[in-house]
Amino acid sequence: MYKFKENDIIQNTVVSNPRYKFTFHNGVAYINDQVDNGVYETGSLHFNDLNVANASLRKVTTNLSPDFNQKNTTSVDDYPVTGAAAQSFSLVRDFIRKSGNTYDETYTTGFGSPATSSITKFIALQGTMNKKKVSSPNFDFENYFTKTLSFAGTGSSEGFLQQDINILSLTNLFYGSLISPGSVSLEFYKSGSILAKAQDTKKNGELIEQENSTIGTGTVVGLVLYEEGVILLTNTASLGGGQEYFLQPTASAGSAVLDDPKWIHFGSYINVSGAAGTAITGSTYVINLQGTVTRPTLTMFAHAPKTELNWSNNPTFLDATTKAAYIDQTSSFNYVENEYTKVKNVVSSSFSTYSASFQPTTYIKTVGVYDEDRNLIAVAKVANPVKKTVEQDYTFKLKLDL
Q1: CB 126 within 8 A of CB 136
Q2: Furthest-apart CA pair in the chain: how many Å?
Q3: Among the listed residues 214, 212, 110, 244, the one whose alpha carbon sits nearest the alpha carbon of residue 167
Q4: Is 7 a member of any domain?
Q5: Which of 55, 190, 267, 288 is most buried (CB neighbours < 10 A)?
């Protein structure tokens, strides 16, 4: 057993920036252009999961949000998360439809008892948005909502909604500690051609139009809350192009409504009403972003010095012809090993009838890490056993994510 020296333990932080691409079209969602992996139910994305068809073999297939166009909290095939079970998630779209001074219950997602969850989510962002007003006046919450909701009331007493709001929210399984500023781009395609593109080019959270001439390049069409993983789309102007049934009801009993392509409709791709001819077939939405994952790590250097570690407790370490007499005497008072027991010579020879000179040889396959009380707390294994002779020394680099 060896004690780590001062320079044998290094603590540092590793920062990675995973990139993701989400594509939504005609009732189907894809992640990173994977057609046959990552999608189970229509509109439901899964992360670090096995794409198996048998529900009894899936540890977790919870459909957190089967509908990117309309938030639905119904769970199916819900299995407990244990051990190394897969994780599932959804990229959720919440849409708030303005009607007078309040919202339209038919087209506002999350409507129901005890409260409208989409509006609750938006109001929860008030503090964060107002804190960012110093970087842009577009973050002023009162630009979009001028009164705190009171769910005890009805109609206009519930608040003064200024406009339609489109909220896209991601789980931090995607982005880690925050979405990397400057990495977000949204692309709105119509009939296979790009209609509009917005990007946070200033890295201050403003999504600025890059392509569409109808509303003009340089127009702020939405906001990104990097730490919260939320994208707000606020521009209500027409982007041009043909109309589609972007306004889908929150239940199949409602009716889909035709409207021009707009940024507030970005991500509407599910035909909730189910009525024939109301599917959104001509619009495709693409989200590109990059996360920032910060992970503290512990690096340890375990040394195997020369002339040491030349003994093994593996039974094959001893010569089979003398191993039976390895213990000469044993009792309650003494333990004597047979001095004539031989260690097996594993040194190869170039001649079939000649044994090469003996050299102490062991094979290292496991490195154990102990705490101050000599309790085993970690085990590292090499892919193939490492041959150790008295002339060789090795250093094993162990890395542990904290």
Answers
A1: no
A2: 100
A3: 110
A4: no
A5: 267
Q: For residue 70, give the nearest of 262, 251, 224, 222 by alpha carbon.
A: 251
The tens digit of pLDDT for each residue in 90-140 reads 678 889 999 887 788 888 887 554 446 888 889 899 999 999 999 999 999
Cis peptide before 249 (omega within 30 of 0): no
For 279-287, what is the mean pLDDT? Answer: 94
- Looking at residue 325, what is its pLDDT? 65
Q: Give the range of the structural domain holding residue 373, as residue numbers without chain letter.
A: 296-401
Confidence band of 186 (pLDDT split at 50, 70, 90): very high
Asked if residue 9 is part of any domain, the answer here is no
Residue type, 183: S
Q: Which residue intervals of 139-247 are DSSP H helices?
A: 172-175
**Can you read off the two tokens belonging to residue 173?**
């399984």
Question: Domain boundary residue among 239, 270, 292?
Answer: 292
**Token pair 């599917």: residue:** 279
**DSSP 3-state of 187:** strand
Tokens of 344: 């097996």
Beta strands in 50-184 (DSSP E): 87-88, 92-96, 98-99, 102-103, 165-169, 178-179
| Alpha carbon distance 96, 234 (integer Å) | 11
Q: Which helix (H) or strand (E) holds 257?
A: strand 257-259
Could you give the count of Cα atoms lying within 13 Å of 251 in the half-sphere of its Cβ? Answer: 6
Q: With contact defined as beta carbons under 8 Å apart, do 233 and 263 qualify?
A: yes
**Do residue 161 and residue 254 come from a single domain?**
yes
Query: Would you state the pLDDT for residue 82?
Result: 33
Question: What span, in angstroms and rounded, lies between the C-alpha atoms of 382 and 365?
Answer: 5
- Chain-centroid distance of CA 78 in Å reads 20
DSSP 3-state of 337: strand
